[in-house]
Design a protein that fits this description.
Strands 1, 2, 3, 4, 5, 6, 7, 8 and 9 form a 9-stranded mixed sheet that branches. Strands 11-10-14-13-12 form a 5-stranded antiparallel sheet, with helices on both faces. A 4-stranded mixed sheet has the order 15-18-20-19, with helices on both faces. 39% of the residues lie in helices and 25% in strands. The longest helix is centred in the first third of the chain and has 59 residues. It is of the alpha+beta class and 524 residues long.
Length: 524
């Protein structure tokens, strides 16, 4: 008897639907956000890794042009042998600017394409000076050549440091032009090799930045619409045609964010710089930003193992990584469908509010002898009435229609008001007498008789709002009739004609036609 009752059930169901819809919507939204995030991260990382493979193609092409170099070997360290070997490589690969050999002390040998020929640089044993030689058509130029300014101590320091951090099989990309005072940006790829004598060396190939950018511009981008090289100090070099609409004076140079003309690249680089501030490296995970009302994802994949932290940056618009099921239009359509479904369910609930409240009020019905005893102790009132018999007139000593009418009058009044319980087999003073005087053959016969009375005099459509049960109380049988409010007027078809009753305190009162009309207006 203490379960959910009446209007509480309707409110529970009504707000439960709203909560369920909100919960489903939140779960779907959260799930789609996670899917979007994961899809964007995977797409951006795959795009950067795919593009890094295009950069590696340059290095592999150079390596594989010489069998020994492809195997990580240098046959001889004599300048003539190195000049011959590297000269052939430079001749075969026009996008290669220079080749360097170094060890733990620093630079050992340099060959670069300069001044209409090949320039060779060989430091002395003490690394105090560099011998420069210009070769044209394979022969040393007779004219004196002093090379160009090379800050050997600084170069030695950088190369030896890089050598000490490299592991076999690793490739380290870094900018190198600033060490050799060339007018174009160089990017070197360094790896460890062994000489013919077993000495561990570092072999570095220098490419003009334009060669790297050109290779990237022709590579499969995997959804990326902006590609750039990024350094840990916040500088970037955008790829031509993909955010690199810079003037000729800035082409092929690493630029600060405020020098970058493309707003997407500028914002991506600024975001990378803000996140790697103090770490001198790019963030480990992709992140998103909004530019011109469009969401972009960006990431810079490290190409450097050590040094100036050169990375390959990409920016991918979210539209390029979203599937149909995670697009904004799908979410908006799903939200509309979910809202319409919710409104439909709530409309149905509202139309059936009376039935739902009735179901809830049925839970308040007495089910046990203890429940009936509690009701009796509360005494008669607006929602409780006692009748000693269903059909037997104790005064006349025989069955009487007037007794049945009195019971039906109470039932119809309950239906038309706030519901209530009729206990048949209880005297007015609360004494449990049972309804044995009605002389029914069984409890089922008693229930069948009562239900037939309801069907004939009130209407079968109201039976769903009435619950009847025979309960044994103090070894006496009591017919408990529990009523819930009906959504339509319950009119009693009596011998004198149709009557309409409502509860008024502990009594059932018949309404006049005018009163019934007012009641209808009030309850419509």
């Amino acid at each position: 008897m203490h379960g959910i009752k009446g209007k509480q059930l309707y409110r529970l169901v009504f707000y439960g639907v709203i909560f369920a819809v909100a919960a489903v919507g939140a779960l779907v939204y959260t799930g789609v956000r996670e899917i979007r995030h994961d899809a964007a991260v995977v797409a951006v990382e795959n795009s950067a890794r795919g593009l890094s493979g295009a950069v590696t193609v340059l290095l592999n092409a150079v390596r594989n042009s010489n069998q020994e170099m492809g195997q990580g070997l240098l046959k001889s360290l004599k300048p003539a042998a190195l000049r011959k070997e590297f000269g052939a490589v430079l001749k075969d690969h026009q996008n290669l600017a220079a080749v360097m050999v170094s060890d733990g002390q620093g630079l050992r040998y340099l060959l670069t394409r300069r001044f209409g020929g090949m320039v060779e640089a060989v430091p002395d044993e003490m690394h105090s000076a560099v011998a420069w030689t210009l070769f044209k058509d394979g022969k040393a130029d007779d004219k004196p050549f002093s090379g160009w300014e090379l800050e050997l101590p600084q170069v030695d320091h950088v190369l030896s440091d890089e050598f000490s951090h490299l592991e076999p099989g690793q490739v380290n990309w870094r900018s190198a032009g600033r060490f050799h005072h060339v007018n174009v940006a160089w990017i070197t790829a360094s790896s460890l090799v062994d000489s013919g004598s077993g000495e561990r060396l570092m072999l570095s190939f220098a490419f003009p930045a334009e060669a790297i950018l050109s290779q990237l511009s022709e590579a499969e981008r995997g959804g990326a619409e902006r590609i750039f090289l990024y350094w840990g100090d916040g500088r970037a070099m955008p790829v031509s045609g993909l955010g690199a609409d810079v003037g000729p004076d800035l082409a092929g140079q690493s630029l600060t964010p405020d020098q970058l003309p493309d707003p997407v690249v500028r914002q991506a680089v600024s975001g990378l710089a803000a996140r790697d501030k103090g770490m001198n490296k790019a963030p480990d995970k992709p992140f998103s930003f909004v530019n011109n009302h469009e969401i972009w994802w960006t990431w810079a994949m490290p190409l450097s193992i050590f040094g100036d932290t050169l990375s390959l940056g990409v920016a991918v618009p979210r539209k390029n990584v979203l599937s149909t099921l995670t697009s904004d239009s799908f979410l908006q359509g799903g939200a509309v469908v979910l809202i319409l479904m919710a409104f439909g369910v709530l409309f149905i609930l509202h139309r059936n509010r009376g039935r739902i409240e009735s179901l809830g009020m049925r839970r308040a019905a007495a089910l046990t002898a203890g429940d009936v005893t509690d009701l009796i102790q509360a005494g008669e009132g607006g929602r409780l009435e006692f009748k000693q018999t269903l059909r037997f007139n104790l005064k006349s000593g025989k069955n009487g229609k007037e007794i049945e009418h009195a019971c039906l009058k109470t039932v119809s009044a309950f239906l038309n008001t706030e519901g209530g319980t009729l206990l048949i087999g209880v005297a007015d003073d609360g004494t449990v007498t049972g309804f044995d005087e009605d002389r029914f053959d069984s409890d089922d016969k008693a229930l069948l008789h009562f239900n037939n009375l309801v069907d004939r005099h009130i209407g079968t459509e109201f039976s769903r709002y009435i619950d009847s049960k025979v309960i044994e109380v103090c070894e006496k049988r009591v017919l408990r009739v529990h009523c819930v409010p009906a959504p339509a007027p319950a009119i009693l078809d009596a011998a004198k004609g149709e009557e309409f009753f409502v509860r008024s305190g502990p009594a059932s009162r018949s309404l006049t036609l005018k009163q019934f009309h007012d009641w209808l207006k009030k309850h419509q």
